[in-house]
Design brief:
The structure holds three protein chains of three kinds. Chain B is mostly helical. Chain B contains 13 helices and two strands. The longest helix of chain B has about 45 residues, at about 360-405. The radius of gyration of chain B is 24 Å and the shape is globular. By secondary structure, chain C is mostly helical. Chain C has helices spanning about 5-30, 35-40, 60-110, 145-150, 180. The radius of gyration of chain C is 27 Å and the shape is flat. Classes of the chains: A mainly alpha, B mainly alpha, C mainly alpha. The interface between B and C is large, with 120 and 102 residues.
């Protein structure tokens, strides 16, 4: 039973990951990423980590990939792109190198250490009575207090980044002087009159 | 540990049969109530407007939705040339499937014993429990987003941009208010299984009848916030500017026809039924209610409560006008989220030292002290936040004024594209 | 894990139902595609312009801030389940977390990052808004000169375009009937 679920989950993860790499349309890639998330979700359930499984869907599929999709769909990145043109020249060899290093690391870990076994965890918080989420809460809010509070700092950084993004290319508050406003209105006037002579006398005067 | 006792003795043939029976029953319940609800809404809105409503198909018109569905089945399903074929076909299912499955966590009664196998009157009681609500609404965003994008057409795209921003804006409120329920449940039951819907309902039973229900326990506020948020999450009126026909002529599902369109319709009403059921579970004690001659009639009370909630939705639809987009976003981000967060902390403050025993004013104060601290902190932060909202609105004002300027060719007035 | 079995079965049933109805629709519905039916909907006129390719940055901001609150909410759940046991210490911990994130959020709001729609209150707006510009985040589309000048728009034909501009080509095949409809 466990093995069957494990294999289905693994197949989903691999299919999704290959899809992300191989498909041409970025929206399809993002959808394959969601598929991968569901594979991971299945593996978490298989390990008895129900809360993490739910988090996988709520945060990753429900929020992070949604942000990806927002950017892809609504910034027009989904049009055809020339993949041949490269901005960073050493991108491709570097990516291949890093990929190989990661592969070797994973293989080495699975050979050297014993913890990549696929079997449910037998030690730590999972043992004993009480639900999965209760134990997670217990250890998160006692043993891992500092990392938890550090997460708040991390989120603050994200907020500041969002502020920077929202202010870019935009004049800051109070920058426009009354004189500039008057000039702006007058230029509206003259432009409208120029485009349509019949409007010339009928426009309201520039307000102060 | 929670979980359905049906599986306590392994999977025998009888267990499998009970299981299949429950699955089919839940599926039929959802489908029939959707068909009923489509009709009921049209009827009730007509009554509220002193009209007859549909009254031709079947007895008094009650088979109208069945007739509509059948008609749609016989219609041509065509795909726009500009569409992304696969995603276009996939989107309706991404909306319908999660919301129909979400009904499985709703407890419709207590326990029932069939052939010596005791089981909950609820399809499943998985350990993640009520988080399924957040998962389902998180996945449903994909349906709306992809439907609009894959159509390759203007109005659907605008509708889906609006819709997906609206859905994610109100999801946080949903999470915060549901966390309040989990907290109250954990305090009442004292075990680590407060996420289970069965435990949430069980914690709301007691001698004092409805005084145990969560909407009393959390002093109405969380319930009201949750109701607003889930109404927005379903894009029901007055939050239905996703499909504002005057502006978008239908919204994200504009290009869909035949059975694909029927799926969107089905998903919308399945969401209404499921979310009403979850609302009853969270706040109105689910199937809890008076017994009749010592027999528990949970399913009856459950149905009555859900019907009342469903009627409220119809009533709201017939009464309230639609919000504007900036009002919608302001309500979600600048009112509901801060309020929900503050209220969560206040409830936590009042309940955290509930186990301090004793009587008299001193003990009462010791019990409630943290609650008052939380209220004080909330007021300070609210003042700060109101100032932030004021400043933020002003900044936007100046920006817009500055962008209203003429382009060099002298013919156009620039304008920031604010609300598509 | 067996607790998930009913959900799996319901999923299978719903998917089977969906597949069955699609098959039924294929079987029962007619299949008579025409160019007009398969064109994107444009309120009855023949579509001339491509979709707006870009949307205001606010929408991405909403998605970004949503992630922040989503993470906060997710952290709330293990605490909400255990908060009686964690006691006042847990409350203080969570309060510190929530207050820090909330103040950051207030900073964001004070920068107008979540202010939508028209200005409220005082301040003059330009007398007419005619077209979107290159400074706007929505991509500008060529429009008839009548519209630019603020006169009553004429029906869209091949005439009436802004001088010197041609309509951008639609994706292949999407504009088959455009000129003949007007001619």
């Amino acid at each position: 039973m466990d093995w069957a679920v494990y294999l289905v989950g693994a197949a989903m993860i691999l299919t999704g990951a290959l899809g992300v790499i191989l498909l041409r349309n970025p929206v399809h890639c993002a959808l394959m990423l969601v598929f991968t998330m569901f594979g991971i979700f299945l593996e978490f359930i298989n390990q008895g980590a129900d809360f993490l499984a739910a988090v996988q869907i709520i945060v990753y599929a429900g929020a992070v990939v949604i942000l990806f999709l927002f950017v892809i769909m609504f910034l027009g990145v989904d049009r055809k792109e020339a993949i041949g043109a490269e901005r960073l020249r050493f991108q491709r060899p570097l990516a291949i190198l890093l990929g190989l290093v990661a592969l070797v690391e994973i293989l080495a870990l699975s050979r050297v250490d014993h913890w990549v076994s696929g079997a449910p965890a037998q030690s730590g918080a999972l043992k004993g009575a009480g639900s999965n989420v209760a134990k997670l809460g217990q250890s998160l809010y006692t043993g891992y207090l500092l990392p938890f509070e550090m997460t708040a700092a991390l989120l603050v950084i994200a907020v500041v980044a969002a502020v920077v993004m929202s202010r870019r290319h935009q004049p800051s508050a109070g920058e426009m002087s009354p004189a500039a406003q008057k000039e702006l209105r007058e230029s509206h006037q003259s432009a409208l009159s120029a485009s349509d002579p019949s409007l010339a006398g009928r426009l309201e005067a520039p307000s102060e | 540990m929670g979980g359905d006792p049906l599986f306590a003795h392994g999977l025998s043939l009888a267990v499998w049969l009970i299981l299949l029976g429950k699955v089919v029953a839940v599926f039929v319940i959802v489908l029939v109530s959707v068909l009923f609800m489509v009709m009921y809404e049209r009827k009730a809105v007509a009554w509220l407007g002193v009209r007859y409503g549909p009254n031709r198909a079947g007895p008094n018109g009650w088979l109208q939705s069945l007739a509509d569905g059948t008609k749609l089945l016989f219609k041509e399903a065509f795909t726009p040339r500009t569409a992304d074929k696969w995603v276009y076909k996939l989107a309706p299912y991404l909306m319908l499937v999660p919301i129909m499955i979400a009904f499985s966590i709703v407890p419709m009664g207590g326990e029932i014993t069939i052939a010596h196998h005791t089981t909950y009157v609820q399809l499943a009681d998985p350990p993640w429990g009520i988080l399924f609500l957040l998962m389902a609404s998180g996945i449903a965003v994909y349906g709306v987003m992809l439907a609009g994008w894959a159509s390759g057409s203007k109005y659907p795209l605008l509708g889906s941009v609006r819709a997906s921003a609206q859905l994610i804006s109100y999801e946080a409120v949903l999470g915060l208010t549901t966390a309040t329920v989990v907290m109250v449940t954990g305090n009442a039951s004292g075990f680590g299984d407060a996420l289970h819907t069965h435990a949430i309902v069980a914690a709301q039973s007691g001698h004092l009848a409805f005084l145990h229900w969560n909407f009393i326990h959390t002093a109405f506020v969380s319930f009201i916030l949750f109701t607003i948020a889930i109404t927005a999450e379903m894009t029901r009126p007055p939050f239905d500017l996703v499909e504002a026909e005057e502006e978008l002529s239908g919204g994200y599902n504009l290009e869909y026809s035949s059975i694909d369109f029927a799926w969107f319709y089905l998903a919308e009403y399945a969401a209404l039924v499921t979310n009403s059921a979850i609302l009853v579970t969270l706040w109105f004690g689910g199937p809890n209610g008076p017994t009749v001659f010592g027999h528990s009639i949970g399913p009856f009370w459950f149905a009555v409560k859900v019907l009342v909630v469903l009627y409220l939705y119809v009533w709201v639809r017939a009464t309230l006008p639609r919000l504007r987009y900036d009002q919608l976003m302001d309500l979600g981000w600048k009112r509901l989220i801060p309020f929900a967060l503050a209220w969560l902390m206040i409830v936590a403050g009042f309940q955290v030292t509930n186990n301090v025993s004793g009587s008299g004013f001193g003990h009462w104060l010791a019990q409630k002290a943290w609650g008052f601290v939380a209220i004080g902190a909330a007021i300070v932060l609210a003042v700060l936040f109101l100032r932030a909202v004021e400043v933020g609105g002003g900044a936007s004002e100046v920006e817009t004024a500055q962008q209203d300027r003429l382009a060099p060719d002298g013919r156009e007035v620039a304008r920031r594209g604010g609300t598509p | 894990m067996v607790q998930y079995l009913p959900i799996l079965l319901l999923l299978a049933l719903v998917v089977a139902f969906a597949g069955g109805s699609v098959a039924a629709s294929r079987l029962l519905g007619p299949k008579r595609p025409t160019g007009a039916k398969e064109g994107p909907y444009e309120s009855g006129i023949v579509p001339r312009y491509r979709l707006a390719a870009r949307f205001p940055v606010r929408f991405y901001l909403v998605a970004m801030i949503f992630i922040i609150f989503d993470i906060e909410v997710i952290f709330l759940y293990p605490w909400a389940v255990m908060y009686t046991q964690l006691g006042v210490f847990g409350l203080a911990e969570m309060a510190a977390f929530a207050v820090v994130v909330f103040i950051a959020f207030a900073y964001l709001v004070s920068n107008g990052a979540l202010s939508w729609g028209p200005r409220q209150g005082r301040g003059g707006r330009a007398p007419v808004q005619l077209a979107r510009s290159t400074t706007a985040t929505v991509r500008r589309v060529p429009r008839p000169v009548e519209l630019i000048q603020g006169k009553a728009p004429l029906p869209l034909g091949d005439h009436g375009l802004e001088p010197g501009r041609q309509p951008e080509p639609l994706p292949a095949g999407a504009n088959q009937q455009a000129p003949s409809a007007q001619a």
